[in-house]
Amino acid sequence: MTAIRYRYALLSAVPVLVVGLLGVALAPAETCLSPFVKHLDRPEKYLYVFCVDADAKDNDFLAVIDVDANSSTYGKLLHQLDLGCAGNETHHFGFTDDRTHIWGCSLFSNRVFIIDVAGDPARPKLVKTFDSSAKTGLTGPHSPYALPGRMLISYLGGKDGGLPAGLAEYDNDGTFIRKFAFPKDAPYGYDVAINPKLNRMVTSSFTPPPNYRKPLARMDLKQFGDKLLVWDFRARKVLATLKTGLAPLECRWSLKENANHGYCNCALENTIWIWEGADENRYTARKLCDTGKLPADLSQSPDGRFVFVSCFVSDEIQQWDVSDLKNPRLVSTAKPGVQPNMLHLTGDGKRMYVTNSLLSTMDRSEDFWVRLLRVSPDGMKIDPKFKVDLTKFKTGPARGHDMLLY
Amino acid sequence: MKWPALQTFRPPALLFLSSFALLAPLREALSEESRLAVIRTPADFTLTMQDGKAFRLADLRGKVVVVSFIFTTCNGTCPATTQRMSQLSRKLVGDHLTDKVHLLSITLDPARDKPTALREYMRLYEVDAKHWTFLTGSQKQIDKVLSDWGMWVRPGARGQLDHPSRVFLLDVRGRVREIYNLDFFRPKWVLDDVRLLLKEAAE
Q1: Does the distance separating the beta carbons of A21 and B80 come in below 8 Å?
Q2: Pick from A53, A152, A18, A169: which is nearest to A95 by CA?
């Protein structure tokens, strides 16, 4: 290469490098996903809903809903992927880092379903089902969470449904790599959230399988966790154990620039708590605000300004402005129907899909649906044109829980 | 297991699907717990270096190896990945570790990235070829490597290629001990991991 060509090539590489770096930094986030998951570079076309057959007699399934605004079948069911077995209590979803496969966890059966969505997004395929308890000794797999080239699962229980619960890591093909038990003084498990910039991971705590398999009225409240763990992620070591309200569930690191804090909904205290890092290793937790009854899921706007919480028992979704962490402000509420639960906000922060089943042992309605909220800084509005009825399947009603977009 | 997922996207001789069927993972237990778990052992391969000579991965046994997958006309994550590799390379020089650590960058686009293109790309990033090798091969060879490493490539927007952004850290026995995305591919952190693997190998 001549010197002139070399200089030209070098100059032309600079904007490519800048674009590359900015592209990485500015890619829009679907705020509930692992930060390692590849982002959608277009508006969503398909909504996947993890469905529990309501009476647990027929096979559980994944429902594919058309959410392409330009499609003639917008808002309609496109496909049902039969998972091949019943009684799983299919619950939470997670994409692999490359967004080609969904992992779905089952709270009753311990099964994990690996589903290919990249081959034909309209007709996903089940490529593997495995018993996630067999090699880990852990039970109640809850949150499948992408790591680069691997998956992390947080479990609600340990051996035979006891404690401590823990975490397990798998290759993207479902091959077990290793596991970690939670410490004796904070043995409960639930969710996991990683902040790569800070090298920090937070885990939360619910209750082990024998307790959540009981009807809500018979659950033992003494068997729920009330702690968050802050981890050095790369070392997989616990740095801090933080006391919170009862049953801290979904963990969300703030998406504000350079933030070293995050949020967690304490389901049995009707609160949102915040964890805050003063420096690399000193973390504290405090109550941020009171919410409606049984805050079940938590989401946030891409800029980190708003936190959204579904209040399962008081039938509402709340939008909190958390610009001032000392004075969070309730901006709006929406009531899309009975017992709203899972929230899935799009990468642009404008559309929030909502389902309304929590657990078969905790649901109090058999009217299952998927709704859409239009979200802005001024508030949330229910889209009257989008209502997917999950009660009219050939096998009867289905409890829709977690969702993912493609 | 096979991943039949992406084959429907496959254009002629471009895409190869991630498949671990040929991986034959060897998960040998470490003598003691390490924060860097043994994730898998990818199959050996022979590809073509930037100077046209053959290169065999197994010849790097005894060294810690950092492996990236890029293509030279990428305007997505590859420039940032290669820039970080370049930063890491300079740190290795500064810490006198270049005889113990080797960097590899394997093209995702062998049809365009012939040895000449790789050499030009290396000049842009001031690559020291003594401890950083760029590799290409036939489409079939690259497809096989991608499959074995759980990687894939498919057509993306505006003539670009879509692919996962992963960088692999291999120990002296050729086992994958860490997989980074760009968030985690920080030269200081990688150097910490490299030192841990070298210490482990010395014990």
Answers
A1: yes
A2: A152
- The predicted-structure confidence for A22-79, as pLDDT tens digits, reads as follows 444 344 457 789 999 999 989 999 999 999 999 999 999 999 999 999 999 999 999 9
- The first and second tokens of residue A70, run together, are 């330009």
3-state secondary structure of B68: strand
Q: Report the predicted TM-score, pTM, of the whole model to 2 decimal places.
A: 0.91
CA distance A148 to chain B (A): 6
* Mean pLDDT to the nearest integer, A234-254: 97
Q: Helical H runs in A37-187?
A: none
Query: Is the minimum CB–CB distance between B182 and chain A shorter than 8 Å?
Result: yes
Q: Which residue has the tokens 């120990």?
A: B171
With 60 as the cut, is the pLDDT of residue A122 above it?
yes
Residue A74: name the closest of A396, A383, A393 by CA: A383
**Angle of CA points A245, A247, A250, to nearest 5°:** 105
B169 interface with A at CB cutoff 8 Å: no
| B158 close to A (CB below 8 A) | no
- What part of B 19-38 touches A (C-beta under 8 Å)? 20, 23, 25, 27, 35, 37-38
Cα–Cα dist A191/A171, whole Å: 20
- The Cα B146–Cα B138 span in angstroms is 12
If pLDDT is split at 50, 70 and 90, which confidence band does A5 have?
Answer: very low
Of chain A, the percentage scoring pLDDT greater than 70 comes to 93
Tokens representing residue A265 in the block = 């909904």
Q: Is the pLDDT of residue A351 over 90?
A: yes
User: How far from B69 is each of A54, B56, B92, B104, B133, CA to CA, in Å?
Assistant: 46, 16, 20, 8, 12
Q: Give A-chain residues touching B3 at CB under 8 angstroms.
A: 100-101, 116, 127, 173
Judged by DSSP in three states, A84 sits in: strand
Residue B25, pLDDT score: 39
- The predicted pLDDT at position A29 comes to 53
Beta strand A261-266 with A248-253 is antiparallel
Taking one residue from A and the other from B, the number of pairs with CB-CB distance under 8 angstroms is 120
Phi and psi at A363, nearest 5°, equal -65, 145
Could you tell me if B78 lies within 8 Å of chain A, comparing CB atoms? Answer: yes
What is the CATH code for B45-202?
A: 3.40.30.10
- How big is chain A, counted in residues? 406
